[in-house]
Amino acid sequence: MFDAMGQLFGNKFSSQWGTYDDGSWLAELGHLSERHIELGLARLRQQVRDAAKSGDEAWPPQPVALAGLCEPRPEDVGLPTVDAAWREACAHCHAPDGWRWSHEAVRMAGQTVGWREIHGTTAQSVRARLEKRFEREYGALVNRVMAGQPLQAQGLIENDATRNRAELAERASREQAQQQAEAAGLPHRMNASQGLAALKAATGRV
After folding, report:
1. 40, exposed or middle or buried, with CB in 10 Å at 0-12, 13-18, 19+?
2. In sequence order, which residues have a C-beta less than 8 Å from that of residue 142 and are 6 or more positions away?
3. Residue 57: left (phi > 0), alpha (psi -120 to 50), or beta?
4. What InterPro entries would the database entry show (predicted)?
């Protein structure tokens, strides 16, 4: 990376950072793979070219700025953009099994956030929170694709402090229903309506 930065910026880089890293770059880039670094440097080269075309002078970025350039965007690995993925999830959340998804990562991110939540939420503040969570889940899956790892939902944990009372009450209700279902010997994987119907049937309630 230091060689590449030296080639791009010459003395502008070496006079500021020297020949070897003092730990500043490792602290910001150490968690990234070689493919991430290559992606960031490719974007940086394009910025230098664009600056040269417009007659501007390009300067070396700070470590944290280069780290930002290294983060993959979905389109870098052939996935829909975040906005397009969210629109697709919203458009087909009512019947996700009947839709041919543009990419498995879109379906998995939507499933982790919750199809019922996406479909049934109308409050703007809650919908914005769901969109933000979708973005995080989708970003985690994009990183796995970038790293060549198999896709699996990350299920990022949300702090209870980020949930309102209605969301907390709904989660508590789901957990209680799940515990009752397990006690009655019902299957573990059910949605809310399936679980309620099966629980009523098992206990003889109508």
Report:
1. buried
2. 72, 73, 74, 77, 79, 105
3. beta
4. P-like
Report which of 122, 86, 121 is spatially closest to residue 107, judged by C-alpha positions: 86
Q: Which structure tokens are listed for 76?
A: 């870098």
Q: What is the pLDDT of residue 158?
A: 46
Q: Please give the Cα distance from 84 to 113 (Å, whole number).
A: 16
Handedness of CA 73, 74, 76, 81 (dihedral sign): negative
Give the C-alpha separation, 7 to 13, whole Å.
9
* Cα–Cα dist 59/51, whole Å: 10
| The token pair that represents 131 in the structure block | 């969109």
- DSSP codes joined into one string, 109-152: HHHHH-HHHHHH---HHHHHHHHHHHHHHHHHHHHHHHTTPPP-
Cα distance between residue 120 and residue 17, in whole Å? 53
